[in-house]
Structures are given as C-alpha cells and as structure tokens.
Design goal:
mainly alpha, 3 domains, two-stranded antiparallel ribbon, 12 helices, globular
Length: 340
C-alpha cells in the first residue's frame, strides 16, 4: 500500500517540510487507530527501511561514509589513501543510544534536527535498521567482493585473470536453471577460480545469509568472523561502511526477526510498477496519483460486481453472516418427486 510519495529533481532541501506532515499524521494514527468498516484498526510503527544515504538524511546526521557516520555505534573512521574511502577499524566501539542521541551527546555525528525525534514510540537508534539484505549484502558486501575479484579494487593479488572471468560467465550462461537461483551456482562456479582463503570466506558469507540463518543468534559470530576476515585478508583499509555494518546485523535481527522481514526487496520491486504508471515526464506525481485512484476505484467496482452475483461472508461482532444480494426466492412445483 502506498501511503505517500515525494517527487522532485533532487531530495527535499528541508527535513521539516519533508517529514513534519508525515510525523504529525502518524502520531494521530498511532494514538487513535484507523476506522475501517466500523472497526478501529490499531497501527504500530515497526521500522524504517531504506538505503544508507536515505537513513543518514532522515536522521539528520553525518553521511554514512563520514568519519562519524555510523548510525549504530561511536566508531570513528579514518580516511585511506589506498582504498580512497573512509574505513572503520574499531569493532568494539560503544553502541549509540536513543537517550544520548536526543540529548545531542554525539555532536560530531549529529547534523540537524529531525522531525523523527517527535515520533511517538520511536527509538531513533534501534528502529532505523541497517540489516537490509538488498543494500547491505547483495549491493553492498557481495558487490564489493565481486569488484575485488573482477577489477582488483582490493589489490591485484585478488584479481581474477580475464580468462577466468570469461570461463565463469560462460559456465553461468550454459546452466539450465532459473536465473533467480544462479546465486546458488556460485558455490560450484567460484570454487575452481578463487584462492582457498577467498573461497572459504565467500562460503562463510553464503552460509550466513543464503542458508537463512539470519534469524539465529549464532549470526553474531558469523558477522564478526566475516568482518574480521575482510580486514585480515584484504586489509583494514577496505572495511568500509557496509562491511562495518555487518557487526550490527545481529541487533537488528534480534529485535525484528529474520532478515527477509526487514528487507527492502518488496519495496524496490514495487518501484518498477510505480514508474510504469507514468505516461510522460510532465507532472509525474499527479499522473501516478490519478492512476492509483483509478485502480482503487476499479478494484472496488469489481468487488461490488462479484458480490452482487454471488453470496459472500461478512465478519460481525457476534460471528460470520452469509450475505445474499440480488437474490430472489421463487415457487417451485415438484412433479412426481422431480424438480422441473
């Protein structure tokens, strides 16, 4: 369900203008619920799920790749001329807390005031998750490893030869399996091309996420080992923000459950359908809003049509009723025990 949309050539310049209406409306909904079919449905805010730039923006803090950019702990990064990025070497830094954040006890992390601080029942640290499978794992850690093997961004000693990359691609193309499970083929395809240490490290990452142990407490040891191995094998200079955030996966999983329940994938998939609602680049927001309104009305009309032709069930306070519409009884004469 789409609740609200924002459209512009760049992100909103003012957090107050962007978030204040949402915060005020949600606070009212959290207090009073939403009336639906003569019932009040209670609503609870579960979590904010987004990519790293959006998380930093809505919290009003330093960018995720800044030295004080970690949302979860007080680690201080350092700039590396080798990796040309900020790396985070301290894996035992104190955790940030909601209370200290609201007291602006992190002046080098805090940038501007955010309306999210006026959100009822919101823990500004815990409820904005970093353990998003799409951005943290698939487009984060895994993509960095692929770049290390294909382009040598972690050093030429880890770079695969062009012939090896070509053989891997040809092997994947020949596989007669659905494209969505090609990731499982990596266990076989990469084995003969990566070094033993790099392949074992990949297996650890694969087991931690692909085998769905993301809901188990043992994930904390997996995340520590994966992060440590990257710093030990490839160098501390390459422990960028997404690698460091592996250390915070456990706390998100402990609070919210399995990784798939806090994944951005469903929302990312929906984006393509929203974009298809536009017919031109003129007044994009209005176009999408009108198409959604048309779809909603068409859905209601379809439901009404179906209900007019067939009986349906309706939940009541005392039980379930069978509703008949456009239903008429007629007199039937039975002749010799047979219906006409």
């Amino acid at each position: 369900m789409i609740v609200a949309m924002f459209h512009g050539i760049k992100k909103p310049p003012e957090l107050e203008q962007y978030l204040r209406p949402f915060v005020e409306e949600m606070n009212e909904v959290l207090d009073n619920g939403i009336p639906i079919n003569n019932r009040v449905v209670r609503v609870r805010l579960r979590a904010f799920i987004s990519d790293s730039p959006a998380r930093s923006y809505i919290k009003g803090v330093m960018s995720y790749n800044a030295k004080h950019g970690c949302l979860k702990c007080c680690t201080v990064g350092e700039h590396s001329y080798q990796s040309r990025t900020v790396y985070f070497w301290d894996s035992n830094a104190p955790e940030r807390t909601d209370e200290l954040f609201r007291r602006i006890a992190y002046p080098k992390h805090y940038r501007i005031y955010t309306p999210l601080l006026d959100f009822q029942y919101l823990n500004i640290i815990e409820d904005i998750v970093v353990a998003d499978r799409l951005h943290l794992i698939d487009l984060g850690v895994m993509r960095r490893l692929l770049k290390a093997w294909v382009k040598g961004v972690f050093g030429t000693q880890w770079k695969l030869a062009p012939e090896q990359c070509s053989r891997i691609s040809k092997t994947l193309e020949k596989m007669q399996i659905p494209s969505e499970i090609h990731r499982y083929a990596s266990l076989v395809v990469l084995r003969d091309h990566l070094s033993k240490s790099a392949y074992n490290h990949f297996l650890l990452l694969f087991c931690a996420f692909m085998r769905n142990i993301g809901h188990m407490p043992t994930i904390i040891s997996y995340m520590d080992i994966i992060s440590y191995h990257i710093s030990y094998m490839y160098g501390i200079d390459y422990v960028a923000s997404n690698i460091h955030n592996l250390l915070h996966v456990y706390n998100d999983v402990r609070k919210f459950g399995p990784l798939y329940s806090i994944s951005f994938y469903p929302f990312e998939n929906e984006m393509q359908h929203i974009k298809q609602l536009q017919r031109s680049g003129y007044k994009s927001l209005e176009q999408v809003a009108k198409r959604l309104f048309e779809f909603e009305n068409a859905h209601i009309m379809r439901l009404r049509t179906e209900r007019n032709s067939e009986p349906y069930l309706q939940q009541t306070k005392t039980g379930v009723k069978v509703i008949f519409t456009d239903f008429m009884l007629r007199k039937v004469i039975v002749v010799d025990g047979f219906l006409p």
